[in-house]
Design brief:
- The protein has 9 helices and 16 strands.
- Helix 3 crosses helix 4, helix 3 runs parallel beside helix 5 and helix 4 crosses helix 5.
- The longest helix has 18 residues.
- The two termini are 29 Å apart.
Length: 330
C-alpha cells in the first residue's frame, strides 16, 4: 500500500541560544563552546491513508519535535517529509494545508481575543477553502462535528472548559479539510474522564471522515485503544514499529518491554494491589547522546557491539521491525 505520509531519514537539530555571558564572550573574541540538541535522528516513518499511527516514548525523546517536522511546523535538518508524493516543505516553509495539528494545550493554541467562530473560519478563509458568505454555516457544521452547539461560535476561549476548548481546537483543524491530523498529546492536560470523551471523539471523526492521524502520547493505554500501528521512540530514534496488538503482545526491543513493565497493573493474586517496574536509569541528554544504540546505558542485555554500532531496523522471521542487536524473543 502506498503511504499517504512518508518521512524519509528525517533528522532535526537545534542550536541552543547563547546566554548573556556567552554572547559577551563571543563579542570579545573569546571562544564559546556551542552544542547541538539532536532532537530527531535519522527517522523514517510511513502512514497509510485512514490509519492511526501511535507515537510513544518518554518525555524528552523527541516525539513532539518529530510530529512538528511531519506537520511542517519545523523544517527538517536532513531528510524530507512528503504527503501524497509532494514535499511538506518548500523553501524552508510549510507548503500544504493537507496536514493540520492539534496541540496539547488548547488554551495556549487559541487567541483569547478572538471569538471561537472567527478562530475556526480564519484559516479556511485565508486559504480560499471557505467563502465568507458560507462562513457561519461552515463554522456551525464543524462545531456540530465535535459536539458543540452553533451558539458557541460567539464565545471566547476563556468561556469554555478544557475539554470544550480542545473540541474547538479540533474543529479549527478539521475546517482546513486536512488529509491527516498530527495530534500532539491532545488529552494530556485534561482530566481522565474528559480524556476518554476526546479519544472517543477522535474515533468517531475517524469513522465519519476517514481521517488519518499521527497520535503522539506517553500514555500507552490511550495509544493501544486508538492506534492501528505503534512506533516506539527513544532519544530521537524509532526503535520498534508494528501492529499495535502485536507490539503489546510480543515487544521485541528491551525499551518497549521496559515501557510496558513500567505501567502500573492491578494484581489480584498477591498482597500487592499494584505492580510495576520503573525503567532503570535516566534518559540521556540529547545534547550528548551516547554512541551506538542510544538505549545501551539502561539496557540489561547490552553488549560491546551495542556501545559501538547503531542497530539497523530489522524484521527477520516475518516479525515486526525492531532496531536492536539482540531483540527479545517472546
Amino acid at each position: 500500500m502506498t503511504p499517504l505520509v512518508l518521512a524519509q531519514n528525517v533528522s532535526k537539530r537545534f542550536a541552543p541560544r547563547l546566554g548573556l555571558g556567552e554572547r559577551i564572550a563571543a563579542k570579545l573574541g573569546s571562544p564559546v563552546e556551542t552544542r547541538t540538541v539532536h532532537a530527531v535522528d535519522n527517522v523514517s516513518l510511513a502512514i497509510a491513508k485512514g490509519e492511526v499511527l501511535g507515537l510513544v516514548g518518554e518525555s524528552g525523546c523527541g516525539k513532539s519535535t518529530l510530529g512538528r517536522v511531519i506537520a511542517g511546523i519545523h523544517p527538517p535538518s536532513a531528510g524530507q517529509v512528503t504527503i501524497g508524493g509532494e514535499s511538506v516543505m518548500r523553501e524552508g516553509r510549510k507548503s500544504t494545508t493537507r496536514i493540520q495539528t492539534v496541540f496539547q494545550d488548547p488554551f495556549a493554541s487559541l487567541d483569547p481575543r478572538i471569538r471561537i467562530g472567527e478562530a475556526i473560519a480564519e484559516g479556511p478563509l485565508a486559504h480560499g477553502l471557505m467563502r465568507k458568505a458560507d462562513a457561519r454555516a461552515e463554522v456551525a457544521r464543524w462545531l456540530d462535528a465535535v459536539g458543540l452547539p452553533a451558539e458557541a461560535a460567539e464565545r471566547f476561549p476563556h468561556q469554555f472548559s478544557g475539554g470544550q476548548r480542545q473540541r474547538v481546537a479540533i474543529a479549527r483543524a478539521l475546517a482546513m479539510q486536512p488529509d491527516i491530523l498530527v495530534c500532539d498529546e491532545p488529552v494530556a492536560s485534561l482530566d481522565v474522564s474528559i480524556q476518554a470523551q476526546i479519544v472517543n471523539l477522535f474515533l468517531k471523526l475517524r469513522r465519519e471522515l476517514g481521517l488519518t492521524m499521527l497520535f503522539i502520547s506517553h500514555d500507552l493505554g490511550i495509544v493501544r485503544h486508538i492506534s492501528d500501528r505503534i512506533a516506539i521512540m527513544y532519544l530521537g530514534r524509532i526503535v520498534e514499529t508494528g501492529e499495535t496488538e502485536a507490539v503489546f503482545a510480543a515487544p521485541r526491543h528491551p525499551y518497549t518491554r521496559a515501557l510496558l513493565d513500567s505501567v502500573p497493573k492491578l494484581v489480584t493474586d498477591s498482597e500487592e494491589l499494584v505492580s510495576f517496574k520503573a525503567i532503570a536509569g535516566e534518559l540521556p541528554s540529547p545534547l550528548s547522546p551516547p554512541p551506538g544504540c542510544h538505549f545501551h546505558l539502561r539496557c540489561p542485555h547490552a553488549q560491546a557491539v551495542c556501545r559501538e554500532i547503531v542497530p539497523a531496523s530489522d524484521s527477520q522471521g516475518g516479525m515486526h521491525p525492531v532496531a536492536c542487536h539482540f531483540p527479545l524473543i517472546s
